Amino acid sequence: MKYAILTLPLLLLGSCEPAPEGEPVTRTRIDGQAGAPSPLPSPSETATGTTHVESACRSIIFEDTPLTHCLATPARHRLSMDLGPSGESPYRSLTAYSGDHEANAIAFAMNAGMFDDEGKPIGYFVEDGERLQSLNTADGEGNFHTKPNGVFFGSGDTWEVRSTEDFLANVRERPEFGTQSGPMLVIDGELHPQISRDGESRFVRNAVGVDEKGRAHFVISNAAISFGKLARFYRDELSVRNALYLDGNVSALWNPATDRLDTGAPIGPIVVVERKENDDD
């Protein structure tokens, strides 16, 4: 694959907290080197005890950076947001969340959205159709306020990523789930204008995008990555027209099929991808 080298203003984003733990299971090159397999590998099958469970996630390498790509499809999965037990404080970790839920029902879970010191979302947040936080259109500093930021939301089998402005102007009905974060990585097929191709700000990061088939692509890096490289992965390899940055350094994944449970700094909102009952996994 041929990439043009661009020089754009550097976007210095990210925090300085320790990166989460968690090792990739398998790696597939998709950067055009000899012997490279398909850029969109299918989920892997991993043995857990005596039962074979298909993993929705596959580890890959994009331009020498290891990533884990998890695919949620409407036919096989349900999406929801979770902050904490009803009426209680946020979970603050996937370890706490996993201890409160049956692993065999979960395809994977990941942190999803920015939060305050108590772990509560600082932007739009809807859980089970209940809006717990209103849309945040304020200006400010940091990743969240790097406009345009955006919203990942959905109801039933329809999932979307829209910029905050687009969401405010065009979404009239409250979705079943929603989380606001920022910045957008890809907007209508174009990279965020303030993101350079491969800037010096590099941390473990995660993001989400929805393709034209309605599938949600969740990506978490297994090593430090720039905003530009993560954005280009969504645009060039996943062909996603709209992708949203979820967070960095606190980024964590729980993938029961491979026994991956990341630990690290406290998190806030969690996106949960459940297997549907008619799934034959």
UniProtKB/TrEMBL annotation:
Domain Phosphodiester glycosidase residues, every copy: 106-252
Classification via InterPro entries: NAGPA
Sequence ranges of Polar residues compositional bias: 43-52
Region (Disordered): 17-52
The protein, known as: Phosphodiester glycosidase domain-containing protein
Pfam families assigned to the protein according to its UniProt record, in alphabetical order: NAGPA (PF09992)
